[in-house]
Amino acid sequence: GVTEMNSEALAAERNATNALVVEVTGQQWVWTFNYPSLGIQSDVLNLPVGKPVKFVVKSVDVNHSFWPVQLGVKVDANHSAPTHVYTTPNKLGTIDVKCAELCGLHHAYMETDGKVMTVEDFNAWVTANGGHSA
Q1: Segment 110-128, tens digit of pLDDT
Q2: Nearest 5°: phi and psi at 40?
Q3: Among 25, 50, 78, 94, who pairs with 32 as Cys (CB 3.0-4.6 Å)?
Q4: Please, what is the end-to-end C-alpha distance for the chain in angstroms?
């Protein structure tokens, strides 16, 4: 329900001091994920299980809406100013990333995926992509 999502988001925000920052950029019609503390950028959203995440979301063109479905959060991606939302992925599996704001001709195809993975697998993915583990 809505209450669970809100309490989870609040708990994640309280844990935000050790949150993994993921900068999310929306652009017609792709999502890009930058992990500044890890030194990598990706077109898929991979996250370690059990670690709080702070998404800093922006758009480089029209308004989009960042919706990683299984994470239970959704936030506008505005051109004018970044927005942010917190969550803590608590179960392994696929993440379907969609745009929830009509953003033009190929809006329906503005999606990607990713995974919530074990910390070991996440660190291996980061290293394999030229980044450094947190």
Answers
A1: 999 999 999 999 999 999 9
A2: -135, 160
A3: 25
A4: 33
